[in-house]
C-alpha cells in the first residue's frame, strides 16, 4: 500500500510505537509467553508434551492408564502442565464433523457433507461456517485440537480419501482449507492442516514412496499447503504416512526443517499422523510431536518419542535447544489460538448446524447433464421409479477416521471389510433422511415406487411402467483403500443401462466419493453428482430434483472418460499385500487434474469446473491487466428466468509462449433473474510463476500471458491477454 508522506507523518509512527509498547507490555506475544513458560518446565514436563496417546477404539482396545479418568476418549490426548496453566491437548477428528468411532457412547455430531461437496460449492464463506461449526462442536465436548484441514490434492481419481479433500487444484483447495481452519480457530480450537505432503494414494500408504520433481511439488501440493498456511495460521501441521522422494514425510528434514519451518517461517508444531513416527530421530528432521504413540509400537517397534527420544537426549544426541523448540512451538499455538483461555463450553445450536450441512449439500451437488427432464414439477402426478443405492434408507458417507455418527445414529451400516489395519472401518454408512422419503415429501401427488436395483431384470419391470426413473449409483470410498477402477461396483452400470434402455426419462443420481465412469452417459437424460452429501443430503437431493433449489455446484475434480486418460493408468502397488514397499511416480508433476488434460489434449468425461443450473449466465466486458501479476475484470449476468448462482473461473492458458493451464481465480456469484455483477479477480503470482529450485524462489518470465474466462476448464467463453514483467520472488 502506498503511503503519502507529509510533514506531520512522523508523529503517527511515534504515537503507534508508544501504543504498541504499552499494549505489548500488557499482553506478551504468544512467542514470548511460550518462551517464558517453557523455561519454567522440567524435562519430564517437556517430554510429556511431545507425545499423544490414542483413545480406545477398534485398534487400541484398552483404555491407556496414562490417560486420566474423565478425559473424553478421542484420537489423541497430550498431558498438560497444570502448575503452569498449560492445558492438556484433547484431539478429535476430523474435517467433516466431530467423529466418534466408538469412543464415547451415544455422542453424535453434525455430519457434514464430504470435503468435495464444499469444494464443489466454490464458496469460501460456507467453508468458514463449516469450520466454525466444527470449532463449536469440538469445544462443547472439551476437544481443543481438531484434526481437520485436509488439503491434499485429488491427484488420482482412485484415491480412497479424495472425498475428505477439496479439489485437484492448489488455489481452490488452499482457499477453502484456509477458511475451514479460520472457522475452527475463530472458536478458540486449534486446527491442523493435513497430511503434509503428497499423501494422495491410500495403497500401502505407510510404505508408499511418492516420487515427484521438487519444483513441481512446490507448484502443486506444497503450494496448496503454503497458501492455506499463510491464510489461516493453523496451530499444527500433520505430516503424512508416505515417504516423499525417499524420506518419510514425518522424517523429512527437507520438507519439515527447510521448506515448512525455514522457508515458510511456520511457527506452529508438526504432529505426525497416527502410526507415522518410525524413529526418534524424526525430531531432528522437524517432527515436534508423535501422535497415537501406541500405534507406532503396534505397527513399528516403539513409542519413539517416549523412551528412545529421552535416551537420545540423555546421550546428547538431541540438543536441549531443539527440545525447547519442540515444546515452544506447541505452547505458541496454545497461546495464539487461546485454548488456555476457555470459559464455559458454548451452547451449540444443532438446528443451525443442520442448516449449514444442508446449505453445503445444496451448493455442492453438481448437475452434470440435463436434457430437459429436470426439475420435476412439484405438482407432478407422474409415476416415478427410484431404483437402487439404498435410496430407501439414506445417503452414503465416506469411511475411515473422518466418518461422523449423525444425530439419531446411522440409518444403517453395512460392513464391507477388506485387508489391512483399516478394514474394520470400511463400511457403507447410510445417513438419513432417505432421498426416497424426501422425494415423496416434495412430490406429494406423484406415484413413487422403489426397487432395490440388485438385478437389472427386476429393475426394468418397474422402469417400464414408470414415466420417470431416478436410478442411483453409489460406492464406498474409504481411508486405507484405493479403488481398483472407476467403474461403479456391484453391477450398477448394468442396472442403469438396462433401465435407460426401457425408459427414455432416466435420471442418474450418483452418490460417490470420486469420479466414476459412465458407460450409459448418452442413454440417460440427466446426471446429478451428489457425492457424499451429509446428514441433510437426502433433503438437498430432493430439493434439487424438484427445483426447490437451483443447482449451483461445479466439479472440483476432473471426471476422466477412463483411467487411460490419467497420468497413471496402472497404480503401482495396487493388489500387493498390506506392507509391501511401493513406489508411485507422480510424473505429471504440477500438471494435476485439468492441467494434465490440457497438456495431453484429452477430452474428459466432465471437466473440472463444470456444473449446470436451471438458469443461464452470460459473461461480458472482460478486461485483463498485467504488470506484476494478472487481474481480470468481467461482468456476469443471469440471463435466465430464475435466481441462481454461477462460478465463473479465470484460467491462465498461455505463459510467455508456453501452453500452461492454471486456475487463477474463481468467484461464486448469486444473481436474481436479469441481474448483473462486475467481478475482479487478481491472481496470486505464484500461480503464474514457475518455481526455480536453484534460485529458491518463484520466477515469472517476461512476455505475454493469455487468460480465459470460462465455465469450466474446457469451456472458455472470453479470452484476453496482458504482458508481465520478469521477476524472481
Ligand atoms: C488419519 C488422520 C487422522 C488420524 C487420527 C489417521 O488414520 O490419516 O487423518 O487425523 O488417523 O484419527
Q: Would you state the CATH class of the largest domain?
A: Alpha Beta
Record field, number of beta strands:
31
Low-confidence stretches: 1-24
**How much strand content do the residues show?**
15-25%
Main sheet specs: 6 strands, mixed
Q: From the alpha carbons, calculate the radius of gyration and give it in angstroms.
A: 26 Å
Q: How does this structure look, described?
A:
The chain is of the alpha/beta class and 729 residues long. 27% of the residues lie in helices and 21% in strands. It has 4 domains: 1-29, no CATH class; 30-341, TIM Barrel (Alpha-Beta Barrel); 360-582, Glycoside hydrolase family 3 C-terminal domain (Rossmann fold); 615-728, Immunoglobulins (Immunoglobulin-like, Sandwich), CATH 2.60.40.10. It is built from 19 helices and 31 strands. The strands form 8 sheets. It has a 6-stranded mixed sheet with strand order 1-2-3-4-6-9. A 6-stranded mixed sheet has the order 10-18-17-16-11-15, sandwiched between helices. A hairpin with a 2-residue loop joins β7 and β8. α5 (124-139) packs antiparallel against α14 (350-364) and α16 (456-464) packs parallel to α17. The two termini are 18 Å apart. The model is unreliable at 1-24 (pLDDT under 50). Beta-D-glucopyranose is lined by residues 75, 93-94, 147, 194, 273-274, 401.
Short summary:
By secondary structure, this protein is α/β, with parallel strands linked by helices.
Amino acid at each position: 500500500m502506498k503511503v503519502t508522506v507529509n510533514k506531520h507523518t512522523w508523529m503517527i509512527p511515534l504515537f503507534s510505537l508508544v501504543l504498541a509498547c504499552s499494549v505489548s507490555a500488557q499482553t506478551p506475544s504468544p512467542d514470548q509467553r511460550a518462551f517464558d513458560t517453557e523455561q519454567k518446565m522440567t524435562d519430564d514436563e517437556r517430554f510429556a508434551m511431545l507425545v499423544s496417546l490414542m483413545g480406545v477404539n477398534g485398534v487400541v482396545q484398552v483404555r491407556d492408564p496414562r490417560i486420566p479418568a474423565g478425559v473424553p476418549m478421542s484420537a489423541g490426548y497430550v498431558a498438560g502442565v497444570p502448575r503452569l496453566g498449560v492445558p492438556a491437548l484433547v484431539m478429535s477428528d476430523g474435517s467433516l464433523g466431530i467423529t466418534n468411532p466408538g469412543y464415547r457412547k451415544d455422542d453424535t455430531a453434525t455430519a457434514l457433507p464430504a470435503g468435495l461437496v464444499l469444494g464443489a460449492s466454490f464458496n469460501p464463506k460456507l467453508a468458514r461456517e463449516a469450520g466454525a461449526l466444527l470449532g463449536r462442536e469440538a469445544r462443547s465436548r472439551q476437544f481443543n485440537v481438531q484434526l481437520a484441514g485436509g488439503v491434499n490434492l485429488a491427484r488420482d481419481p482412485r484415491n480412497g480419501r479424495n472425498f475428505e479433500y477439496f479439489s485437484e487444484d492448489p488455489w481452490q483447495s488452499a482457499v477453502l482449507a484456509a477458511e475451514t481452519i479460520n472457522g475452527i480457530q475463530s472458536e478458540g480450537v486449534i486446527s491442523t492442516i493435513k497430511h503434509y505432503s503428497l499423501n494422495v494414494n491410500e495403497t500401502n500408504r505407510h510404505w508408499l514412496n511418492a516420487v515427484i520433481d521438487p519444483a513441481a511439488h512446490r507448484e502443486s501440493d506444497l503450494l496448496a499447503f503454503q497458501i492455506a498456511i499463510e491464510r489461516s495460521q493453523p496451530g499444527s501441521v500433520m505430516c503424512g504416512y508416505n515417504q516423499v522422494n525417499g524420506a518419510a514425510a514425518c522424517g523429512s528434514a527437507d520438507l519439515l526443517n527447510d521448506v515448512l519451518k525455514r522457508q515458510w517461517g511456520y511457527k506452529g508444531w508438526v504432529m505426525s499422523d497416527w502410526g507415522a513416527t518410525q524413529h526418534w530421530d524424526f525430531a531432528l528432521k522437524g517432527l515436534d510431536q508423535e501422535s497415537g504413540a501406541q500405534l507406532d509400537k503396534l505397527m513399528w517397534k516403539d513409542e519413539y518419542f517416549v523412551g528412545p527420544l529421552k535416551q537420545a537426549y540423555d546421550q546428547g544426541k538431541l540438543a536441549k535447544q531443539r527440545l525447547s523448540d519442540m515444546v515452544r512451538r506447541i505452547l505458541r499455538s496454545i497461546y495464539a489460538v487461546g485454548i488456555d483461555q476457555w470459559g464455559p463450553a458454548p451452547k451449540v445450536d444443532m438446528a443451525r448446524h443442520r442448516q449449514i450441512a444442508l446449505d453445503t449439500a445444496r451448493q455442492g451437488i453438481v448437475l452434470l447433464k440435463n436434457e430437459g427432464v429436470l426439475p420435476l414439477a412439484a405438482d407432478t402426478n407422474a409415476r416415478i421409479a427410484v431404483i437402487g443405492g439404498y435410496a430407501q434408507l439414506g445417503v452414503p458417507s465416506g469411511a475411515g477416521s473422518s466418518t461422523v455418527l449423525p444425530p439419531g445414529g446411522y440409518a444403517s451400516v453395512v460392513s464391507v471389510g477388506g485387508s489391512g489395519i483399516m478394514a474394520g472401518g470400511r463400511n457403507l454408512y447410510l445417513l438419513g433422511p432417505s432421498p426416497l422419503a424426501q422425494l415423496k415429501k416434495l412430490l406429494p401427488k406423484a406415484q413413487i415406487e422403489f426397487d432395490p436395483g440388485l438385478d437389472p431384470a427386476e429393475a426394468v419391470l418397474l422402469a417400464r411402467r414408470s414415466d420417470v426413473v431416478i436410478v442411483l449409483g453409489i460406492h464406498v470410498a474409504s481411508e486405507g483403500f484405493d479403488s481398483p477402477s472407476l467403474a461403479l461396483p456391484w453391477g450398477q452400470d448394468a442396472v442403469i443401462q438396462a433401465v435407460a434402455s426401457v425408459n427414455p426419462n432416466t435420471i442418474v443420481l450418483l452418490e460417490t466419493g470420486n469420479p466414476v465412469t459412465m458407460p450409459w452417459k448418452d442413454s440417460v437424460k440427466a446426471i446429478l453428482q451428489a457425492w457424499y452429501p451429509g446428514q441433510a443430503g437426502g433433503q438437498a437431493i430432493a430439493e434439487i430434483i424438484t427445483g426447490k433449489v437451483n443447482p449451483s455446484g461445479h466439479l472440483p475434480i476432473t471426471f476422466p472418460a477412463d483411467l487411460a486418460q490419467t497420468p497413471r493408468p496402472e497404480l503401482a502397488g495396487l493388489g500387493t499385500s498390506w506392507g509391501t514397499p511401493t513406489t508411485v511416480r507422480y510424473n505429471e508433476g504440477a500438471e494435476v487434474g485439468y492441467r494434465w488434460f490440457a497438456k495431453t489434449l484429452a477430452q474428459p468425461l466432465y471437466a473440472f469446473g463444470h456444473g449446470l443450473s436451471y438458469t443461464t449466465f452470460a459473461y461480458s466486458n472482460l478486461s485483463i491487466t498485467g504488470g506484476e501479476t494478472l487481474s481480470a475484470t468481467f461482468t456476469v449476468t443471469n440471463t435466465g428466468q430464475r435466481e441462481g448462482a454461477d462460478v465463473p473461473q479465470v484460467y491462465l492458458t498461455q505463459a510467455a509462449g508456453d501452453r500452461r493451464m492454471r486456475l487463477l481465480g474463481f468467484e461464486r456469484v448469486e444473481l436474481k433473474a436479469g441481474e448483473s455483477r462486475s467481478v475482479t479477480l487478481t491472481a496470486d503470482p505464484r500461480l503464474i510463476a514457475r518455481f526455480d529450485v536453484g534460485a529458491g524462489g518463484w520466477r515469472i518470465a517476461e512476455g505475454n500471458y493469455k487468460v480465459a474466462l470460462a465455465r469450466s476448464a474446457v469451456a472458455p467463453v472470453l479470452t484476453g491477454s496482458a504482458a508481465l514483467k520478469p521477476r524472481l520472488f
